[in-house]
Amino acid sequence: MARKSSGSPRFDDTHTVVEAVNLALARALDDDPQVVVFGEDVGVNGGVFRATLDLQTRFGPTRVLDTPLAEALIAGMAVGMAAQGLRPVAEIQFAGFAYACIDQMLNHAARLRYRTRGRLSCPMVLRTICGGGIHAPEHHSESPEAMFAHIPGLRVVVPSTPARAYGLLLAAIRDPDPVVFLEPTRIYRLFRQAVKDDGTSLPLDTCFVEREGDDLTLVSWGAALVEVRAAAEALAQQGIESTVIDVATLKPLDMATIVDSVGHTGRCLIVHEAPLSGGVGAEIAAQIGEHALLHLLAPVTRVTGHDTPMPLARLEHAYLPSAMRIEQAAHALLRFE
Amino acid sequence: MPNSRLPPFDESPPRPEAPRSVYRAHGYIGQSGRVVRPLPAFAADAEALIALYRWILLCRHFDTRAVALQRTGQLGTYAAATGQEAVPVGVAHAMIDADVLIPTYREAIAQVMRGARFDDILRYWGGDERGADYAATPARHDFPPAVPIASQVPHAAGVAFALKHGHRNGAAVCFIGDGGTSKGDFHEGINLAGAWQLPLVVVIVNNQWAISVPRRAQTAAETLAHKALAAGIQGVQVDGNDVVAVREVLDHALRAARTSHAPCVIEALTYRLCDHTTADDASRYRSDAELREARKHDPVARLRTHLQHQGLLDASAERALEADCEATITHAVDAYLATPSRSTASIFEHLYAELPAELVRQQARLAETDHGP
Lengths: 337, 373
Known about the structure:
heterodimer; A: 337 residues; alpha/beta; 7-stranded mixed β-sheet; 5-stranded mixed β-sheet; 12 helices; 34% helix; globular; B: 373 residues; 6-stranded parallel β-sheet; two-stranded antiparallel ribbon
């Protein structure tokens, strides 16, 4: 059967985020026979976003599998598979459907090693796409990172570039503990970047410092970094130099890098797409208060989504942190006396 | 169209026709202890029957002692299996080392039969995670007790997949209660096993009560085994108080799972003669008359009577067996009570393979502030 292949082959080494995810999955399947990729529509269809494009053709139907439509099952079977020595990489089609997996991730995946004192472990990856800005239907644009990041024993990773998607996903698959890997839909095909498909992973539990400036620290992750980078550039045009930190691993947090930067700049603006209250930004702000209070020249500030459901497409713009909101908040921070 | 959707394994045998009705297994030893049908080959061996009886008796003794420990403040909340011992014993007896056990919180005896120790079980219920770190195989690769209801069925489906994927000659054996079959996880797990033809055997221990909710209020399904039919797999009902029947049904189901990856749901009909846990008072929701009737089906009494009728267990042999069980349990209780405490710092251990920096900080902070219980 002729198969649709929307990801046309490229002959240079630049890739989008979703292509980088595909490369990392293929590399992991190639490197380790214990890796198994599964989820709804990941096989014949190659994933609804084509993240698993052609993987079933290349690696066969025993390693790349279409599951029944059952999210709790997908997470739960990954626990069973991982405990028996496989390296399951499970896909949940949209983060809004990943809430059905929280019971499995919280009660089982995250604590299997703990409750058996290391006898069993759960080296699984739960991949799902997250975030808004693509005019998707209701429940398709959620940002559930704080719910997963609250769970002891999990890792929560959000890439923000193609190279980080590739390197961090490989690291997540090779990690001996369960990882929730959230891929921001909005940046799936937003830009290209050189990605060297050489099997090199990037470190987890470590922030990436993207640019360094003395005036303030901008802390963010995932798709919101698109606006953060734009705001940092606009501020630079005005003579305001920012340090931009991509947190990347939201659980456990690399607070040392963030505290170190805030200790230097004295001002911190946290930007995330998820709702304000109880978000990961709140945790970062609390820890800055705990560890860098006397260095602060202004209160730690957040620009985030609101404590509302993600609105449907027409009002998404009012929800998502914009470069303008970030810029205005930065100016307010700098004006604070 | 490539035939890659079904089944997931190229070497799978042709999918059998979906069953249309529930199979009701024969009983072998009747309520009076009399043999009602020629015993299967394994049960013709007197030693095998005595061995089964010893496990059932051990379970009864262990539960009695565990409840006593709880009542005297030496154990946490405990879920006994009194009245339904023949199910886990029959199941575990039919399992081979390559099989994997995925229990709930009421199958301690099956875990012990797989190599866990009674003192491990006591440590677990006594509030120490080391009690789930079984040293001996095959228990070492089995799952620890699942406390949330039904969420272990997807694990079992994943285990069954791993066994098939790795060409390992084993089956996943998953326990669940009657109440658990009302949950989506149960249906999702058996549905996958049917769709992918996984070597999964789910044993529903139908003890008639999900804490205070009776079986009839749980579902309108004619039997719980009928729920298998919607998943396209065989459902079997068996007398769960007849250990020979349980063992025989499991033996057949497990052989089919291992050799042809045929999944199966088995409903074992039994009765919980005890409270749901030591924190429960079953007299609030069920009558003395019902309990009196249920006691007539007691699996311990049934097998004992049978063995006596067959001349396999005289009074002195029985006394010796009781003393042996009591000594075994006493030894385990002594080992449990003598378990050295864990360090406070160990609550951070084994959460991640390597302790993240933030947890190192929290561990150090606890060390500064911990003044003991």
